[in-house]
Amino acid sequence: MSYESNAHSPYERAIQRVPEGLRVYLAVLPVTALVGLFILYPIARAIYTSFFERSLLHPDQSTFIGMGNYANIWSSAQIHQVIVNTVLWVVVGSGIAIVIGFVLGWLLYEKLPYVSVASAIVLIPWVLPRVVGASIWQFMFSGSQGIINELLVQLGVVDDYVVMLGDPSLSLWPAIVGMIWRLAPLFALLTLTSFQGIDEHLYEAARMDGATPWEAFRYITLPLMRYNLAIGFLLMLIYNIRNFSMVWVMTKGGPGYSSTTLPVMIYRSAFVDFNIGFASALSVMLFVVLLVFSYYYIKVYDRVQGEF
């Protein structure tokens, strides 16, 4: 018997002992182990911790309180404002980013020369590190030093400098502006690629039949782009609802809870108030919301795959 056969025989004998129906799963066993270690275990641990009262200052001491943390979420004085902030953050921010991104994508497709160079320039807000982008907007919206305040004063919109990041009624909106600036280019690129995937002969045939630009847009562009736009919209929602850095860098969720979104509240509960149990319950709630959006994203994606 050769050296090579001796080297492989123990492995082959071990494989032979595995039932034939289970051998197919051996190839995916390492990946499954990694998924379980880095994804499933943290999720299970967060769910488990959410049933305990536990402080980060004393991680070895915990008290089982069942659904107490979940009850505390809805009895919290801040949760209603946090939910409203999160809805505004996700719906308004995503909606405006999609509209601006769609217009930018259309301009890149129809008007601008050197599309590849223009696309690279448009993507700069997206490729910048999140903290860098948030810091830029924090400086721009600062009091007397910020360019936004200076422009508003020079244009006569306001009489004096407004500390927007320190005003409870305004503090969330600068962060929304920064988030739109970051996400609109991504949707613009998605829109551009969707336009480029439409056969030009369809538009030529529509023009020959006397279709107006609006009719061509309504009956050709939108139907052919609807799934790509739906996927982009769902990705925006998934990204925004878990976005943390823009709000935290610009306002840290303040003043008070005026600009706090759900991810920021999770961070503050865990690493400012040191309440790990309550933060875990909030994380589970956020996880469920993300599961819902992810479910619809997969359904739309599968429908797209089925049509091609």
Automatic annotation (TrEMBL):
Listed GO CC annotations: plasma membrane
GO biological process, one term: transmembrane transport
Residue stretches making up the ABC transmembrane type-1 domain: 83-297
CDD domains the UniProt entry points to: TM_PBP2
Pfam family, one: BPD_transp_1
Source organism, top-level taxon: Archaea
Protein keywords: Cell membrane, Membrane, Transmembrane, Transmembrane helix, Transport
PROSITE patterns per the UniProt record, alphabetical: ABC_TM1 (PS50928)
Membrane topology: Multi-pass membrane protein
Transmembrane annotation, as ranges: 24-44, 82-108, 114-132, 170-192, 227-250, 270-298
Localization per record: Cell membrane
PANTHER family documented for this protein: BLR7065 PROTEIN, SPERMIDINE_PUTRESCINE TRANSPORT SYSTEM PERMEASE PROTEIN
Family classification: Belongs to the binding-protein-dependent transport system permease family.
Protein name: Sugar ABC transporter permease
The organism of origin for this protein: Halarchaeum nitratireducens
